Amino acid sequence: MAIAAEDVCLERVLPMDEGFALEEVVPETGLPTLGSDVTFQIVSPDANLLVQLPFGSQTQTFLREVRKCCGAGVVGKEDCPPEGETWPGSSKGQSVAGGAPRPSKLHREGTSDALVSSKTLDRRGSTLRSQLLQKEDLYTFLCCFKFFVGSYNVNGQSPQESLLPWLSHDPEPPDVYCVGFQALDPSREAAVFHDTPREEEWFKAVTKSLHPGAKYATIKLVRRVGILLLLCVRRELAANISDVGIATVGSLVGMGDKGAVAIHFRFHSTTICMVNAHLAAHPQESEQQNQDFHDICARLQFYQQDPSLPAIPLSQHDVIVWLGDLNYRLEEQDIERVKKLIDAQDICALYQYDQLKNQMEAKRVFEDFTEGEINFQPTYKYKAGSDEWDTSERCCAFAWCDRILFKGKTISQLSYRSHMSLRNSDHKPVSAVFSIGVKVVDEQLYRKVFEETVSSLDKMENASIPSVTLSKREFFFRDVKFMQLQMEFFIICNGPIPCQFEFICKPHESSYCKPWLIAKPSKGFLLPDAEVTVELEVFVNKSTATHLNSGEDHLEDILVLHLDRGKDYFLSVSGNYLPSCFGSPIQALTHMRQPIQDMLPEAIRNLTLMPLWSGEDFFWDEKPLDIPKELWMMVDHLCRSACQQKDLFQQPGLRAEFPEIRDCLDTGTLDTFIGSSSSVAEALLLFLESLPEPVICYQLYDSSVERASSFVLSSQVVSMLPTCHKNVFRYLMAFLRELLQHSGKNHLDGNILASVFGPVLLRPPPGRPVPDPAEKQKAQQFIQQFLLLEGSSH
């Protein structure tokens, strides 16, 4: 998270005069720690301080600016403390982890600048770190630690029994605990307000039930709605845990409590990621679960403390453990046959019907992951408070919903089991114990490799300017569409000199590229004769589509690839964007009687830039439509096909179906949509969310929130809307009231619809902070006035 002004305060001001100097502090070992912060000593007549700065380009920039200000300011030998004494107040800013750094002697070297070496040090440090990482096997050894991993879908229940039979099942205590819960609190309040008392209840239940044979420290807890993940380690091992980070991923359009949370950490020199997921529940098929898995893998990223460094994706970990309620079921739907196989303890025969097993064998999901042998009966679905199967009419087929999988070269599974004695939920918890080989640094070997590497670098370095060759410099992206990713690749080949590259901002611009473009990686380091493939991605979303539709922006950009100590290379990126109803204003769409892609660009531009509050359509002869035809097509389809569909607007659609729906709306090639109603419903929400001016205009947002408690006052706000926005709002409210007429079958109610449509119809103006829970509730209440109160008057 970026540091804002209110996060810091001014303690002291040090003048950068002749008595000011700055120098790096050498650690006690005399060797830098890989990835560690850089410690500097600041010396002035009034203060002697130790300050830690994060490694990276921002530190280098800071040092460069200090150098500009203070020139060649150093302290002489007469200003240093006597031999054997410490600097007064030298503990300020000192790290608490590991050995304390020792200050090095500051001295005067004629006319040399005390900061001359800072840039060289940064460049040399990058090379040194890179080569030491490549030689890691020469100075590390594997040490095995025991990890306990547990997963439990608690079905919204509070803990009512001890978790000792689950968490302390083995006679020997584990070194690390990773405990995950799903369905912690399925209430809508937990999703809206991001708070639930269940978090504290289950946290206490876990900490009370950790193995009594050891003392544990809590490293991290992360929760998203009902998915919680907790990491604990033995207290004596906690100092070896570093670089802890978290990430969360929700379902598309934020619907439901499905998704994943993850914890990333470094144990000694091994990177480990624990993922707790609750995938979509589709008993009859596994495509949705597969899609959820791939979506989570693509979106999980761990941002580093240095914002200039790229985020760490899931794939860049030495060990990954994936646990949770994955919701894969049995392909055998005959419940009686399943029960007979269970009663006969023929787990092997029953396992042949497991969806996850069959999908993994078909290489459709969890590629390169491993799951241990399952020798326990299905963990779902039981009557709460018992070990009896739930045989009610609404009971889903029995299944191994709760799973633990793993990936990595140094991980092996010691046990995998369920825990039948816990009866709190309709699921049974599962656990697995792993032996994970962790890379531990041998200090003597590290010193030897370090010194050899430094010697090698000394021979390599020279004054030559680095240079690279690019496999391609011009890129054209043809027929780019809304929410459709296009990619191009090129290769950077380095010459004989180590090279640091980075895409840099052009003058008077805040980003190196336009918002619809990204380069991966955007910066990096290349050893001599090495090469890297750079991926250019063009992706138009709701925030960039409007200006491309109107012609205010075009798919044109110049990327500047900068080499540290070298020259700049210029890359040309261009393309053509196919206009879309997504991201177009309501007012413009009501004037389009033909599909948007059949219209001339100049006509689209004029309509898109038409003033919203102009009153009369002074330059357009034809009478506008009451509502956009694209909106009518989606709502009409849902009215005809999905009014009685269960969980409409609560289950995500299939991502593969959206392009067909978008093309149908933008080209008019089909009269009916191809795909599921859930996909059309999700497209409708995305259409509304992409409007540059929401249905309830930004100008009326504050009035809407203030008057949300009264139907009469809320109606007055609607009456002030431009005609086209007013028509759209009333049309949508009529549609939602029609859905409520079928609530007995579609299981929808006013609260659900208001919580889904409130955030897309009533959005705060750009630049405003994210609404707090009370403000969100008022927006939801505004919509409810028209779903319930107006509905009762008709």
Automatic annotation (TrEMBL):
Q: Which CDD domains match?
A: INPP5c_INPP5B (cd09093), RhoGAP_OCRL1 (cd04380)
**Pfam families, alphabetized:** Exo_endo_phos2, INPP5B_PH, OCRL-like_ASH, RhoGAP
Concerning SUPFAM superfamilies, the annotation shows: DNase I-like, GTPase activation domain, GAP
Q: Name one GO molecular function term.
A: phosphatidylinositol-4,5-bisphosphate 5-phosphatase activity
Query: Looking at the record, which segments are called Disordered?
Result: 80-113
Could you tell me which InterPro entries the record lists for this protein? Endo/exonu/phosph_ase_sf, Ig-like_fold, INPP5B_PH_dom, IP5, IPPc, OCRL-1_2_ASH, OCRL1/INPP5B_INPP5c, Rho_GTPase_activation_prot
Q: What's the Enzyme Commission number for this chain?
A: 3.1.3.36
GO biological process terms, semicolon-separated: phosphatidylinositol dephosphorylation; signal transduction
UniProtKB keywords: Cytoplasmic vesicle, Endosome, Hydrolase, Lipid metabolism, Membrane
* Rho-GAP domain: residues covered: 607-794
- Give the main location: membrane
One cellular component term (GO) for this entry is: early endosome membrane
Which EC class, in a word?
Answer: hydrolase
The entry's localization annotation reads:
Cytoplasmic vesicle, Phagosome membrane; Early endosome membrane
Q: Which family does it belong to?
A: Belongs to the inositol 1,4,5-trisphosphate 5-phosphatase type II family.
Concerning PANTHER family, the annotation shows:
INOSITOL 5-PHOSPHATASE, TYPE II INOSITOL 1,4,5-TRISPHOSPHATE 5-PHOSPHATASE
This one is known as phosphoinositide 5-phosphatase
Q: Whose protein is this, by species? A: Python bivittatus (Burmese python)
Quick one: which gene encodes this?
INPP5B
